[in-house]
Specification:
The protein is of the alpha/beta class. The protein is built from 15 helices and 9 strands. It has 2 domains: 13-139, Winged helix-like DNA-binding domain superfamily/Winged helix DNA-binding domain (Arc Repressor Mutant, subunit A, Orthogonal Bundle); 144-284 and 307-341, 3-Layer(aba) Sandwich (Rossmann fold). It starts with 12 loop residues before the first helix and ends with a strand.
Length: 342
């Protein structure tokens, strides 16, 4: 098994970005061809709410689209008034001599583009990977076969991401970790490998709890990492943990569910405890970076969430009583945001 404390000799960040950006161009197809958004915006600038009303869109996915187009350099302005950029006016607005809409229209029926249009209009997640006959990601995870393959996919990613995050953590401040929706337990195991005094609990729903137990035992951490079966929204979280981890979890949920989870974390932590949110964060202006805006499209497609801005997440944490925020550098454009229970 992988030693969990070693880093690769080469940086795989670009390889992660190729995968995470796969759906972004399909959202551009939707905006350009299906909605003709840029032509309308050039004629009549409007804000995000105005775009929703004009094109019959829902706010969460429309916000993801706006962030992407800002990061691509296609629109500019403020949430109350978006305008097209000079490049967009020249190449993506009907009537221009340089208009390239037909070039994109030839790909307008791609399955992911069709799915993204439905998500924009309904705010309901599409099937995972646009697979025919598959249900959305949240329900698919209740099926053993899908749960196994998806957990394995996140496990191989976690081998790299977990060690990168663990190396920057102040482990002398913590003794016991609760890894919420912790998948295979790769983060709990990696953190324990970096902090020999640390013990951990992984909270996971069935059937992932069984997968986690097997993976933890195979890695030789079953004496320090236990698994608790349960729904993070419904079960009483175990006490006795001074650090809670949400690794690539909150981005699967919309703001009300994120608030609910953070409240539960704050209530279960002891005085002086902390929560660690590990994710790909947008900047404070929600204007990029581009690779995070692209990843947010994939999340918008298949989950109820999106990528959050670092300032948005700090505000959500502060609402429920966390503060004294620290940023912990991670790998592949993911970072940790550490907040202390006040």
């Amino acid at each position: 098994m992988h030693p969990l404390t070693a880093a690769p000799l080469t940086d795989p960040t670009t390889l992660y970005r190729y995968r995470d950006a796969l759906y972004a161009e399909d959202l551009l197809i939707v905006g350009l061809v299906h909605l003709d958004l840029f032509t309308h915006l050039a004629a009549e600038p409007t804000g995000t709410d105005g775009l929703c009303g004009r094109h019959g869109l829902k706010l969460r996915p429309a916000g993801v689209m706006v962030t992407l187009f800002r990061a691509m350099g296609l629109i500019e302005g403020t949430v109350d008034r978006w305008e097209v950029t000079p490049m967009t006016r020249e190449h993506l607005v009907r009537g221009s001599a340089w208009y390239i809409g037909p070039y994109y229209a030839s790909l307008a029926e791609r399955p992911v583009a069709a799915d993204l249009l439905r998500v924009l209009q309904t705010d309901r997640p599409a099937n995972w990977g646009s697979q025919s006959g598959q249900v959305d990601w949240h329900r698919a995870m209740e099926r053993p076969g899908f749960a196994q393959s998806f957990t394995e996919a996140m496990d191989c990613r976690g081998v790299f991401l977990a060690q990168a995050l663990a190396k920057g953590m102040p482990w002398n401040r913590f003794g016991r970790l609760l890894d919420i929706a912790g998948g295979s337990g790769i983060y709990a195991c990696s953190f324990c490998a970096h902090a020999p005094h640390l013990t951990a609990t992984v909270l996971e729903k069935s059937p992932v709890d069984r997968i986690a137990s097997e993976a933890i035992r195979a890695r030789g951490f079953h004496d320090r990492v236990e698994v608790m079966a349960g729904d993070m929204f419904e079960e009483v979280w175990p006490g006795g943990h001074d650090l809670h981890l949400f690794s690539n979890v909150l981005h699967d949920w919309d703001v009300p569910e994120v608030r609910r989870l953070l409240r539960r974390s704050h209530a279960a932590l002891p005085a002086g405890g902390a929560v660690l949110v590990h994710d790909a964060f947008l900047d404070r202006a929600l204007a990029g970076p581009l690779h995070v805006a692209e990843y947010s499209v994939m999340l918008m497609h298949a989950t109820q969430g999106r990528c959050y801005g670092i300032g948005e997440m700090e505000d959500l944490l502060a609402e429920v009583g966390f503060g004294r925020f620290e940023t912990i550098p991670g790998g592949a454009a993911r970072d940790g945001l550490l907040g202390w229970k006040l």
